[in-house]
Specification:
Elements lengths: L10 E4 L17 E4 L4 H4 L2 H8 L5 E4 L8 H14 L3 E7 H13 L8 H4 L11 E7 L9 E6 L4 E6 L7 E4 L9 H19 L7 H23 L4 H14 L14 H13 L3 H15 L5 H10 L8 H19 L12 H14 L12 H10 L2
Parallel strand pairs: 1-8, 2-3, 2-4, 4-5, 5-8
Antiparallel strand pairs: 6-7
């Protein structure tokens, strides 16, 4: 087992009716800014529940945060937070709203120039407003981690940052808030969660058997629950299981003691979203099988282990089991309802590979478990996803 330090201060408040707990979770003497997306929370009753829980509090609001939240939108929200004296941010929505709110929390108190420098890794995060969340779309795990991904329309970039200063003070997870989600968002959330787990799990086999089996448990639960949510979208227990999988999938615990993680799929996927506007999770479903096929020799031991423990594949040698495991994963994504080929999005794989490779090279980025996948390898991976 490799050395690790694990710290997660987020208070998780889980279950039906728990939005009412808001009144005891936010200090009474601060002005709260509610942040949210396109207005679905006003249709499904979540907004009314939040307002009722915070009755009598000083409130302001900022709506209209996009999927793949934009820097320009976040900067408008940060200016409003400063102008109106917000002292606490409450993100009500999914991962995009949460990611945006984390950046708003930093940008609203930032005094060292353009905060985009944080996204580029040139400037540190030194302060942030406190924030909390009411989660309505399980997918990113942002409700229990330090990460945020922001897009900048003016430059066509999609970058990530992380800081312990943007851990939510609390996150309320009420599975009933997910009942009204469109099928596409449910599908995306399942795939996003699955890929998060795999990118922490799919590394050289070390000596962290507990962490490995915890990851496998999340994968197995997703595989079991995914078909159920299509048949029974109002089943509370199914929704609860998917919600907790998403949170557990990226709260840091599945990286404890494992060897180097492999986030190549996300790095390439972010570029495809920036270039072609494909849903984030759908880029992951396209790219992860391609990454594993490209790296199948180096990942053979882990892929074969996954094939046996997760997919029940026990026949054949390790190479055969590994290959079958990748096929099973791709088939699972398709069973969820998510395409797995660039051609299904009318994207030319050769051109996409060249563009993604060029964008990563411009930033001096090499990716993968060993940090050695450069432009040539990226183009080969994207071609495998044609």
């Amino acid at each position: 087992m490799t050395n690790f330090t694990y710290f997660n201060p987020v208070k998780v408040v889980f279950g039906k009716g728990m939005i009412a707990e808001l009144k005891g979770l936010i200090p009474a003497d601060v002005k709260v800014m509610l942040t949210y997306g396109g207005g679905s929370i006003k249709k499904n009753g979540v907004y009314d529940q939040v307002r009722a829980a915070l009755a009598g509090r000083a409130l302001t609001e900022f709506g209209g945060i996009e999927p793949n939240p934009r820097y320009e939108t976040c900067m408008s929200a940060a200016a409003q937070a400063r102008a109106e004296g917000a002292g606490f941010l409450l993100a009500v929505g999914g991962g995009s709203v949460l990611d945006a709110t984390k950046f708003i929390a930093v940008a609203s108190v930032y005094a060292a120039g353009d905060p985009w420098g944080i996204m580029e890794g040139r400037q540190p995060v030194t302060a942030a407003l406190p924030l909390g969340s009411v989660l309505t779309l399980p997918a990113t795990g942002s409700e229990m981690n330090t990460f945020a991904v922001i897009s900048r329309a003016s430059t066509g970039e999609k970058l990530a940052f992380a800081s312990p200063l943007v851990y939510p003070k609390f996150s309320i997870l009420d599975p009933e808030t997910t009942f009204s989600l469109p099928a596409r968002q449910v599908e995306n959330g399942i795939v996003d969660t699955f890929v998060h787990v795999m990118e922490q799990y799919m590394c050289a086999i070390g000596s962290a058997p507990l962490t490995e089996r915890q990851a496998e448990a999340v994968l197995l639960t997703l595989i079991e629950e995914a078909p159920k949510v299509k048949l029974h979208p109002d089943d509370y227990d199914v929704r609860a299981n998917l919600m907790w999988c998403a949170t557990t999938g990226l709260n840091g615990s599945l990286g404890c003691g494992v060897a180097a993680q492999d986030w190549a799929t996300h790095m390439i996927g972010h570029e495809l979203t920036a270039l072609y506007g494909i849903d984030h999770a759908r880029t992951l479903a396209v790219i992860m099988p391609a990454v594993h096929r490209h790296e199948i020799r180096r990942k053979q031991a882990r892929l074969a282990q996954c094939a046996g423990r997760v997919w029940g594949i026990t026949q054949g040698d390790a190479a055969a089991r590994a290959a079958q495991g990748v096929d099973k994963m791709e088939a699972f994504f398709r069973s969820v309802g998510v395409p797995t080929r660039l051609s299904e999005y009318k994207v030319d794989a050769a051109e996409a590979g060249r563009q993604v490779a060029a964008r990563l090279a411009k930033r001096g980025v090499k990716i993968g478990e060993y940090g050695d996948l450069g432009g040539q390898e990226v183009q080969e991976i994207v071609l495998l996803a044609k």
